[in-house]
Amino acid sequence: MPKLEGIKRVLVIGSGPIVIGQAAEFDYAGTQACRSLKEEGMEVILVNSNPATIMTDKEIADKVYIEPLTVEVLQKIIEVEKPDSLLPNMGGQAGLNLGMELAESGFLDAHGVKLLGTTAETIRNAEGRQEFKDMMERIGEPCAASELVENIEDGIAFAETIGYPVVLRPAYTLGGSGGGIAHDREELVEILTNGLRLSRVGQVLVERCIAGWKEIEYEVIRDSNGTCITVCNMENLDPVGVHTGDSIVVAPSQTLSDKEYQMLRTSALRIIDELGITGGCNVQFALHPTSFEYIVIEVNPRVSRSSALASKATGYPIAKVSAKIALGYTLDEIPNAVTGKTYASFEPALDYVVVKIPRLPFDKFITAKRTLTTQMKATGEVMSICTSFEAGLMKALRSLAQHVDSLDTGDYVGWSDEKIMEQLSVVDDRRIYLIAEILRRGIADYDKIHEVTMIDPWFIDKLAILVEMEKKLKGCDGKLDRELLREAKRMEFPDNVIADWTGKTEEEVRNLRYQYGITAAFKMVDTCAAEFASETPYYYSTFDGVNEVEEQSNRKKIMVLGSGPIRIGQGIEFDYCSVHSVWALSQEGYETIIVNNNPETVSTDFDIADKLYFEPLTPEDVENIVRLEKPDGAVVQFGGQTAINLTETLMKMGVKILGTSAENVDAAEDRELFDDILEECCIPRAKGDTVFTTEEALRVANELGYPVLIRPSYVLGGQGMQIAINDKDVEEFIGIINRIAQDHPILVDKYLQGKELEVDAVCDGTDILIPGIMEHIERTGVHSGDSISVYPAPTVSEKVKETIAEYSRRLAKALHVIGLINIQFIAMNDEVYVIEVNPRSSRTVPYISKVTGIPIVDLATEVIIGKKIRDLGYEPGLQPAADYFAIKMPVFSFEKIRGAEISLGPEMKSTGECLGIAKTFNEALYKAFLGAGVNLPKHKQMIITVKDADKGEAIEVARRFEKLGYIIYATRSTAAVLNEAGIKARKVNKIQQESPTVMDLILGHKIDLVIDTPTQGRDKSRDGFLIRRTAIETGVNCITAMDTATALVSSLENAASQGEMTLIDIATIARRGK
Amino acid sequence: MKAFLILEDGTVFEGKSIGSRREVISEVVFNTSMTGYLEVLTDPSYAGQAVTMTYPLIGNYGICKKDMESRRGWPDGFIVRELSRMPSNFRSEDTVQHFLEEYDIPGISGIDTRALTKILREKGTMNGMITTDAQYDLESILPRLKEYRVTGVVQRVTCEKEEAYVPGDMDSREGAPEKKVAVIDVGTKKNIIRCLLNRGCRVTVYPCGFDAEEVIAAKPDGIMITNGPGDPSECVEIIEQIKMLAQSGIPIFAICLGHQLMALAHGAKTYKMKYGHRGANHPVKDLNTGKVYISSQNHGYVVDGDSIGQDVAKPWFVNVNDGTVEGLEYAGKPIKTVQFHPEANAGPRDSELLFDEFMKMIGGQKCE
Known about the structure:
A: alpha/beta; Dna Ligase, domain 1; Carbamoyl Phosphate Synthetase, Chain A, domain 4; nine-stranded mixed beta sheet; B: alpha/beta; Rossmann fold; 2 domains; ten-stranded mixed beta sheet; seven-stranded mixed β-barrel; 20 strands
């Protein structure tokens, strides 16, 4: 069938800020969909509040609105842009929910906008729990016994008829927010209360517990002609009970016979057919481990994290094909872009194994509960491809970049066998390491391990095979013969690990390998198991076969290193930078090679670079690629710290590092070298010193005087950074940092509290181009990634701006920066200090590029390959400020991580960001808060409890909230101060005091906002921690810095005074400075 | 023990011996199914061939004898990258290793099956030898490899004598038989028979040496000609008998080799494909509805679409990837044939509804 008539202008909804459960996969899907639509001549109007995405580039869409994702904003955009159709299934649950609301309210019909891809009815049938259940019953597909409840009483009654444990799933939430397994009435009440509140429609499904069954997923795709295919099936190593986003997942399934495989495949196709979905869809099954009984867990009628994984695992571009289907094409008309010979109606056949491991944020949230449940906690994931499960697992483990390159973590030294076995019943991210330890000690057999964990014995045997190899290596007495080494490499044990266990150096192992002729080969991901010759250069490595990478061209080759899994502090923005760099290099005629291991990203789409290597980003893995490709140069400055850390390896291999040299990167990180440079440039910075031990740290801290800032060097996102106010803090923080052996010293600096400012600039060795200066709303002490950032800087003097531009120029020059540089400053009065310099891309690069219209990654790339800023048509220096405000607002996922401390500090905690852009500062701020989901007021009641130092500022903030009509509750001392200032604050009791306490208030669901500023340093009081956690877990906004509170009240005042919201099409922002 | 796979073009793969240690020459082909190795091993169509599984991990779920598609294992060789040392599945009764030993099938593991597949894709299907003799003499072996032809395989795999089945047999659904179907066994998979039993048919299976007159005299409501191995044009006698069946007016459905034999019986030609279709992911398009089904396939020969006139038969299905004929509807005769396997096993069951189509042709019941 040809494409549908009358579709010319398509509105695409993105997924908004990155939060746990909704990450880069939707930028990947959305970008692919937009490109696919544009390929068909469509005009694409894009809405997404997330500025760090590639989809919000003007190259991707024709009209780009980085606006809050609310129904009102979308209605306004539809009125202005008059699209003829809307594609709602690319923006995750957020996008789908919005599309649904617009359709259900009749707004789309009234404005002649057609819903593309999937009808509202289909979405309702798939997403509405009752509708779905009814439909499954109708077609005879089994669902778990369940009931949709809207109140606690019904929940208890139903749970007691089917028996505990029961699973609770709130309707219409993402990443399983608010869900869980309740083992008794008390747990039921707790989870259900929370779930009812989080559900958009106030409904929670209470369901028979099928924990321990195999969890199997199918990615299916259907066209309007009713042709359905499955792209991929996947098996979770972790049985039902752990959210699939937090599970180790393999593709294809490993322990299913053809009978089970086809039974579930047939079921998936029947379901998608009955739903009438046109496009991609994910179906999740629970399969009884010892029978053919199965249960349909859920269906996602849209692209998803799983569909991104399936696309990367197979080479089948689900989002792209879905977009074409939405335009009316059928599967047999859409060519398979990988083979160039087959069609999209071909089911991929894999001749390798794919392993996905989630990246969990427990390194950031050390107080958090590590248990894995049906509520997702992972911020990102890695994928690996190899010819066996053992090898795939080993590659994936090291891709996580968590200082663990094998199953032997050394964490269980000193644990008794009893303690180990006890721990086995705990489901957390360390479970496979624990199982490996059990196998290593031989303290339980497969049956016992299976009985406790319900992990299929096949996987346990694979872990055992790895442990056996580990023992062979450890016990070989340094006699590493060819056979043993070959087998170890076939299982992907890295050289450094083998070296450790055999008493050799890594270099000795490597040399031995070469001597034995054991080298990595690269194989192609071709969708068809080599049945057809394929055109797409998408590769993975193995030590188990012959190399098949062929020379493609005689163009100069440049390798761009990606940033690996998304984690707090290293997010989607680095993917944005990597992709733009690849595009710019391609445009200049280079052959591009990208190396990355994150399946959620645009950079790992097979048509971004000329060659894609889906590989761990470790020295050894990168070296294997370099040996084969012999690139003319490598770019590391766009891939975050992960890529920077590979600089040394590349240089050792003789690969030219393009852009700022490694010595100069070191100079920025090395305390002494950097101090010399600052001195040379006459730039002041906070006093400080480097230390290795606690004793040294205490000495330095006492010399400087408290408070001091303590942080490890060579890290991103302020990892491990803390403000210490006394000796005890210093001891604790140094202890934490030194739990992992440090190659580099720890920095101890005098902590200065002032305004924090930031620039991203491009330097060509002579000139510097500064697109703009960003000012943080929160004072120093809050990590820049967690601060609200405003462009152009609204409150600093011209003199400060000039100083910043001048210091930036001096620093870039002194560090011989070629490419990007990010500098953070503190301004106290008119004095400017440098906090830190990062001669590489930063978190704010996409944001500042978009709001200034200056494509700084492209420019940096041009500069890296030898061009000059002036030749590129830009006048160096600080560019004129824009006549609007663009505010970047951090977005957190605290509600997903039970037990995480939410108060802001020097260590970054946000998972994503959104943008507010408007002519006035206040409107921009309002939009930014709105985009971050801070939608006030509801009840107009708030709680204020602040530390003594903040009490003065609290008065002003409270007065303004009171004027807006808020009823203010405050704890004793805060209330006293407010009352004294004439504010009618009601006193509430602290938690330990008699009811009603502050806790009762929050749990009473009548509170909009809690302002709770913890005492400096780490807040030790359980009280404050409990208040903040309770607020977060009951969905109450909680602010922990006075500056944020002030900003919020300004934004609310604006909302109260202003009527219509204005919109800005980013694509119309002129390229400034030209 | 080491094993070697020696190809006609002189390529040698060194791996580990699995299954029988007997030395064997056969035609080397590859199958891209990710599951269903037991169904492949027991599919009579592989007689005379060594099957390479492109999916690297084989044996994960062991052997469940109920899933066997015929009375024994048929291939003359089994080539895998890795054989799982510990199968895991609630139905597993045995290992692939034992299965291969039981049916005296030699095999090789630990080789780069992707590299092998690429050779077969580029150069076409070729003959090969699996041997455990490390002292093999390439010069004397290569001429023997070139000489080898897959012959007489239909006679090898067909049933010995007539067999009768009623609904409820072979784990099919119980029920009173409504229709009589004659199955011409040129190498049938059990599931073809089971699909008929599930639709309430009483089934008589005839060996490949059947007498058409006898079959017609038994007055079946319909005739099914099954899949099977080898070069269809070699089956001269069977084709003659099929000509008679085609004239009888009894509705006929034919699958795979049966489809090829029916075309040959109508004067069409078949030819050997470069490397065939073997897998569980081939898209076939129903030209009547435009709908595409993912099908299970296993054939090295194909009907030449140009050799058969529209007045004799019109194309019913085509392969979306390479446009080859995947099904024919005969003009003026109740005969429909498909190249792919609607009975699946291994592979997708999307086209099982073609058995319902056959039931419609003979006035039987659908499978609910």
